[in-house]
Amino acid sequence: MTGTTLTDSLGRGGRVRLPAALRQTATMAWRSLVSVKHNPLELVDYSITPIMFVFLFTYVFGGQMAGSPEEYLQYALAGIIVQNTLFMSMYTAMSLNTDLTKGVFDRLRSLPIARSAPLFGRIVADLAKQLWAMLLMIALGVVLGFEITGGAAGFVGATLLLLTFAAAVSWTAVLIGMMAADVEKVQVFAFTFIFPLTFTSSAFAEVDTMPGWLQAWVEVNPVTQLSDAFRGLLLGTPAGAPIFWSLVWAAGITAVFMPLAMRAYRSDER
Fold first, then answer.
1. What is the mean pLDDT of residues 132-147?
2. What distance in Å separates the CA atoms of residue 135 and residue 51, rounded to the nearest whole number?
3. Could you tell me which of 78, 89, 84 has the C-alpha nearest to residue 203?
4. Across 1-19, average pLDDT
5. Statement: residue 270 has pLDDT above 80
6. Where are the alpha helices (DSSP H) in 180-239?
7. Is the pLDDT of residue 112 over 90?
8. How far from 15 is each of 11, 18, 19, 21, 113, CA to CA, in Å?
């Protein structure tokens, strides 16, 4: 970076101007996406694992849950995608924790770029990977017989809602990645909290089939709200309340965890 370019990128007090910060964030996001080719296992996680989830829930549980795999797919695909979104958010935590341990962020912070660019770049890249996995699962679902009866508007709305919620959850992932001692601790969190959260929801079974004492939690579970909203948008069924509460949950998660994550990121000395 030349002196002129560096001067143009900085505002008063040596702070990076917003346009430059956005460009730097995009560069960091691209760096994260390109790195996938050097780590084939990550590509498997983002591609093969979602496909396995769709086949598993459709053909192993479908007949028992709804009478036929095709009928169950119409209900469960939304829940499968939501569950996969939550699990993929933990990759943000794991990759961030790995970069911190290896000193990658320390090296990036020494560059004349916005301090937040590496972090926001990571989040943007992971949202792009989330989008890829979602599109892959929906495409497979269509091949297997899933019908998007909500039309193009419903599809776009469902996509935007899912990415909005994923962006909110990413701040939780950032905080976990910053606070965890190692990647193994991040994985323990994923299995300890995400599995119960998804399976005590309407992601894979209707709420009225569950015991009354459990329904009280299931009905307010954010996974229930997001699954019902995503399903309703794709199928064109009424989903106003779930959409509203999904956005409320996303806003609440962001309001709580974004400041905590940014504070942990800025105070990190590793």
1. 94
2. 11
3. 78
4. 53
5. no
6. 183-189, 195-199, 212-220, 222-235
7. no
8. 5, 9, 12, 10, 9
Is 97 in contact with 196 (CB distance < 8 Å)?
no
Structure tokens at 23: 């460009």
Burial label for 18, CB within 10 Å (0-12, 13-18, 19+), is exposed
Report whether 137 contacts 51 (CB < 8 A).
yes
C-alpha of 165 from chain center: 7
| 97 vs 75, residue with greater confidence | 75
Give 45's Cβ-side CA count (13 Å radius): 18
pLDDT per residue over 153-196, tens digit each? Answer: 999 999 999 999 999 999 999 999 888 878 888 888 877 888 88
Non-local (6+) Cβ contacts of 142 within 8 A are 148
Q: Which residues pair with 125 in a beta bridge?
A: none
- Is 201 within 8 Å of 227 (Cβ atoms)? yes
- For residue 120, what are its two tokens? 């926001």
Domain spans in the chain, listed from the N-terminal domain onward: 16-267
Check: CB of residue 99 under 8 Å from CB of residue 105. Answer: yes
Residues 6+ positions from 80 with CB-CB distance below 8 Å:
50, 53, 54, 57, 137, 203, 204
Q: What are phi and psi of 237, to 5 degrees?
A: -100, 160
Q: CA 205, CA 66: separation in Å to the nearest integer? A: 9
Q: Are 28 and 118 in contact (CB under 8 A)?
A: yes
In this predicted structure, what is the pLDDT of residue 6? 41
Burial 192-226 (b: 16+ CB within 10 A, else e): eebeebbeebbbbbeeeebeeeeeeebeebbbbbb
